[in-house]
Amino acid sequence: MWRVELHAHTRYSPDSLLELEEFLEICRRRRLDRVAVTDHNTIEGALRLKEKAPERIIIGEEIRTREGEVLAYFIEREIPKGLPLLETIERIREQGGVVALPHPCDRARGSAVGRRTAEAILPLVDAVEVFNARCLFPGDNACAAALAARFGKPGFSGSDAHTAWELGRAWTALPPFEDAEGFRQALSHARLTRRLSPPWVHLLSTWAKWRRRL
């Protein structure tokens, strides 16, 4: 089984402090076999890391739609933010990508799609992040897990890492895979690690946003 980080951000996300070289070094140290780089509304960081470590990096994007955020894996072209959720999913599919819902029930984040939208859209997605290490309320992860089970969707853990300390905190064990279809099949055999990050990591993200503005 591989150790796979499925939700991580580089400095190309406005609230992340992770530089590219630091990112790869930590991935090596923490024995992460594959890492999905899912920066907010851009694939620039993922593309640059893919050039440096093609076997380790999965190109992804966390896309802010009108209804909330959705994760795309194994895409080649950036998908713009602000589109309707259904159109965003269609664009991911057009590239042969994998669609997942991140932290769908997170009450502390306005970017979450929310339970009602998740219920409407789940038939169209491949997987659900049933454990997000940055969720402040345990019930929100439990809600995501219940939704995944109800709709028969595989679940995975994500660190949602924005800092070096968080990277690899909540990885998912998966059988080896080479492409999007292999990834979909591997998700049905996922074994999850569940380690919450402390609330203070959100303060670091806030600092990263302010530093960028300055």
Short description:
Helix content is 33%, strand content 21%. The protein is α/β, with parallel strands linked by helices and 214 residues long.
What would you say this structure looks like, in words?
- By secondary structure, the protein is an alpha/beta fold.
- Helices cover 33% and strands 21% of the residues.
- It has helices spanning 20-29, 44-52, 85-94, 115-121, 138-151, 180-187, 201-213; strands at residues 2-8, 34-37, 57-65, 68-73, 98-101, 127-132, 155-158, 172-174, 191-192.
- A nine-stranded mixed sheet has the order 7-6-5-4-3-2-1-8-9.
- The longest helix is centred in the C-terminal third of the chain and has 14 residues, at 138-151.
Total of DSSP H or I helical runs spanning 4+ residues: 7
What is the name of the CATH topology?
Answer: TIM Barrel
CATH architecture level-2 label:
Alpha-Beta Barrel
* Strands, count: 9
Question: What is the CATH top level name?
Answer: Alpha Beta
Oligomer: single chain
H/E series? EHEHEEHEHEHEEHEH
Report the major sheet.
9 strands, mixed
Q: How many individual domains?
A: 1
Nearest-integer average pLDDT:
95
Give the amount of beta strand, in percent: 15-25%
Query: What topology, given as strand order, has the largest sheet?
Result: 7-6-5-4-3-2-1-8-9
Question: What structural category do the secondary elements indicate?
Answer: alpha/beta
Distance between the termini: 43 Å
Query: What would CATH call the homologous superfamily?
Result: Metal-dependent hydrolases
Anisotropy-based shape: globular
Please estimate the helix content: 25-40%
Q: Residue ranges: pLDDT <50 for 5 or more in a row?
A: none
Instruction: Determine Rg (CA atoms, Å).
Output: 15 Å
